[in-house]
Amino acid sequence: MSLTNEHIKNRLVEKFGDVMTNFEESFGMMSFHAPKEINLKVMQFLYDESDLQFRFLSDLTAVHYPDNKGVELAVVYHLHNFVDNVRVRFKVFTDINTPQVFTATQIFSSANWMERETYDFYGVDFVGHPNLIRILNVDEMDYFPMRKEFPLEDQSRTDKDDEMFGRGGSTGI
Amino acid sequence: MSEQQHIKLPDGSIEKQTSTLNLGPTHPATHGVFQNIMEMDGERIVSATPTVGYIHRAFEKIAERRPYYQITPLTDRLNYCSAPINNMGWHLTVEKLLGIQTPKRVDYLRVIIMELARITDHLICNSVIGVDSGAFTGFLYVMQYRELVYEIYEEVCGSRLTTNIGRVGGFERNFTPAAFQKIEKFLAEYPAVLKEFENLFTRNRIFMERTQKVGGITAERAMNYGFTGPNLRATGVDYDVRIANPYCSYEDFDFSIPVGTTGDTYDRFLVRNAEQWESLSIIRQAMDKLKSLPADVYHADVPAYYLPDKSDVYTKMEALIYHFKIIMGETDILPGELYNPVEGANGELGFYLISDGGRSPYRLHFRRPCFIYYQAYPEMVQGAMLSDAIICMSSLNLIAGELDA
Question: Please, what are the domains in chain B?
Fold first, then answer.
């Protein structure tokens, strides 16, 4: 009955080979990286197999790592198996200049708005999404505000130079 | 119901067979800033297009520039009907990242506050279903007990709605005797009020007619749409984070998960009422457990993360150093990545936190339950009457602050 992280890992490696990388377990949850081309296949595999049954998409979001050239954006999926009560996290990385990732809306209806939110803030272009438009920000916005190149005011400033408020130059994270 | 009669439009007419209705953004029946553009065929809804984001405040972005303790006030502005659960969820996430073990008494005090918050959230939601179906009385009955719970918060942390309650590691001060007296008063008086509230509604013919088979959803669709909390349990799925991934010593308590069968508005109403009884029982158990624990423990012994007592700051060097480091956001935070869910009043509230060891999170994402399940709304009201759509919306327990982050 109980599904172990080791078993999930073995099943994934057995199915997809060594393209699945960075298996690690932190705070009881297993996470791994997958190539962005097969994100749907991985999700469908985890969904369909009778011993895995990850049929609930808890969360979908993105993270920006500006220093990882070529793989700046990570799309993060949290899946949940209700039967064995196991959660798993997997990430797909993409170049910020070609942020095309396949949409999960065919598998999970809940991915619809979560992907719109991710697009809204990070500019991840979900290929095949039925209605990929901004959701929380105004439609006229022409940038993706959660990216790290838009710093907020630096609270550890030493003076009140505009540079420290994120207005001039390119300071901050 | 007779077949809808259409006017015959001449060929080439640009008129539509349907009419467009803007419900919101500031419609009194939407209880928050939502807009729904509805295509109506007479009184029936052909399609609904929700627009959200009117009160978006960029909390996730702001959180990337704030020290950890300054993020707590952001969380209580998400679901402001049950702000303490959000606060506690954030504290628990940070404590998990830092590996802080809280004493049992802190856990039980937190459970009391969280369950009080769950009751206030559910009583508001359920009584508002009544208001939207024309029964105002129940709302007035339960409202004074929400007031009493707010007085309890006030005793504990000094504020009422956006509570900012507790700290990483525990509470900012011990519960006063008055706080315990008020909790006892609530436990003594509220069951009779809830019973009366149920008597008014549960078997009320008009209320049943208005809510049964309205806004229903199957368990399969609900899971696919990411439903959690009472809305998912009303469809018959017994998923509750308090049981699935116990946090804050919920494993010490004996309670059951009420579930519904059809997933319609009436079942959601019943599940919430049943959960209030469970919450009352949990608070009772917690109050009993507290009696056997030392009464002066209200925070974990983690001087590096828990703000020291003000009198110590003025007299002890250690306390002054820690006070300075915490306030300036110079405490050491471990790098790490975690997803920590808690059972919010309207579903699974998740905190996805990435720390790179800096003074503020590298990334913080809130899994906001009502943002995720609100997208099922067009499917739930398609073909329904306009008045059903209003009731369906209030029964989903949508909180605009949480929806828009």
Answer: 6-51 (no CATH), 59-404 (1.10.645.10)
DSSP assignment of A32-49: EEE-GGGHHHHHHHHHH-
Q: Tell me whether residues B60 and A110 touch, CB distance under 8 A.
A: no
To test the contact with chain B by mutation, choose from A27, A30, A33, A59 the residue with the greatest count of B C-beta atoms within 10 A, namely A59
The answer to whether B312 and B319 are in contact (CB under 8 A) is yes
AA letter at A152: L
**β pairing state of A100-102 and A86-94:** unpaired
Residue in B65, B111, B69, B128 with CA at minimum distance from that of residue B393: B128
Of the candidates B370, B343, B244, B346, which has an alpha carbon nearest to the alpha carbon of residue A82? Answer: B244
Q: What is the distance between the terminal CA atoms of chain A, rounded to a whole angstrom?
A: 45
Which of B363, B366, B380 has the most A C-beta neighbours within 10 Å, making it the best mutation to test the interface with A? B363
Query: Do the beta carbons of residue B98 and residue B300 sit within 8 Å?
Result: no
Q: Are B310 and B327 in contact (CB under 8 A)?
A: no
Instruction: Answer whether residue A160 shows pLDDT above 60.
Output: no
Q: State mean pLDDT over B58-82.
A: 88
Residue A172's pLDDT is 47
List of residues 6+ apart from B80 with CB closer than 8 A: B161, B162, B399, B401
Mean pLDDT of the residues in chain B? 88
Task: Specify the 3-state DSSP secondary structure of A66.
Answer: coil
Encoded amino acid at B122, one letter: H
Buried b (16+ CB within 10 A) or exposed e, A23-56: beeeeebbbbbbebebbbebbebbbeeeebbbbb
Structural contact between residues B349 and B79, judged by C-beta atoms closer than 8 angstroms: yes
pTM of the model: 0.89
Q: Do A26 and B336 touch (CB under 8 A)?
A: yes
Mind listing the pLDDT tens digit for each residue in B310-348?
888 999 999 999 888 888 777 888 889 999 999 999 999
- The interface predicted TM-score of the complex, written ipTM, equals 0.86
A143 three-class SS: coil
Alpha carbon of B318 to those of B118, B163, B324, B325, B330: distances in Å?
A: 39, 29, 10, 11, 15
* Pick from B363, B301, B46, B36: nearest CA to A61: B363
Percent helix, strand, coil in chain A, to 5, is: 25, 25, 50
